[in-house]
Amino acid sequence: MNLQEHYNKFYKESIREISSDNYEIDPMIHAENDRRFGMSLLIRPPMAVKIEIQKFLKELQRIEPHQYYYPNSDIHITVISIISCYDGLMLPNLNVPAYIEQIGNSLKNAQKISISCQGVTASPSCIMIQGFMEDNSLNTIRNNLRHDFKNSDLEQSMDERYLIQTAHTTVFRFTEPLKQKERFLELVEKYRNHDFGSFQVNKLELSYNDWYHRERLVTRLHEFKIGNSKVKTQ
Questions:
Q1: Across-strand partners of 209?
Q2: Partner residues linked to 170 by β-bridges
Q3: What is the pLDDT, as a whole number, of residue 232?
């Protein structure tokens, strides 16, 4: 898979939709009764990358102040959704130690991951930072998890929504019609190839999370060290 081509296709198609007012406003983002929860394995970008992302978001916010902007605490890259969010998934009903053991076994030979956050892309519902992997280590981890979980009895719904192959991070969602669409799109285009920074990943986070990964609703279940380090519990 050519990631640059994938992101370019996504961007062109989505910007065309947004320009035509065919973007998707999220009706649930401020809902108090949203009970959609799941379990995810995540990467947390370092503060230096988040600072660059917030510079971009603050510029967007000056143009469209009432949309949804991700705070630093919620910014993440999904390695894989072990259980995609659905209404009614309750943490007490999950055998967390069994998930930790299963994932730990899948990560035994996992290598460190290098990610470069370069430019932005879009979907009809959100704006994302593009992530590029230096090698195939992230997708090797994903494939090992897919294989091992499908041979286990643990609840999982990997790839039911889509087959994740990128290292993007969602940073913006539409919550109302754009009031200054042209200025908004010009700024997104300005950041199309912006360098948000690069980093190396040596730990992954297992979380029980809501749809938007809001810090107040996330329960961090375990931290896995990858590369030459052994799995470590936090």
A1: 38
A2: 128
A3: 38
Residue 158 has pLDDT above 90, yes or no: no
Name the CA radius of gyration of the chain, rounded. 18
State the residue for tokens 């994740």: 164
Percentage helix, strand, coil, to 5, in the chain? 35, 30, 40
DSSP state of 112: P
DSSP string, 209-229: EETT--GGG-EEEEEEE-TTS
Question: What tokens were used for 104?
Answer: 């730990």
Cα-flanking dihedrals φ and ψ of residue 66, to 5°? -105, 15
User: What CA–CA distances, in Å, run from 175 to 25, 34, 126, 224?
Assistant: 5, 15, 10, 35
Q: Which residues contact 156 (CB under 8 A, 6 or more apart)?
A: 82, 83, 149, 150
- Residue-wise pLDDT tens digits, 170-229: 999 999 999 999 999 999 999 999 999 999 999 999 999 999 999 999 999 999 999 864
Confidence check: pLDDT of 116 > 90 = yes
CA distances from 95 to 28, 91, 99, 224 (A): 28, 8, 7, 17
d(CA 57, CA 183): 14
Give the DSSP H or E segment for 147.
helix 137-150
**SS3 state at 102:** helix
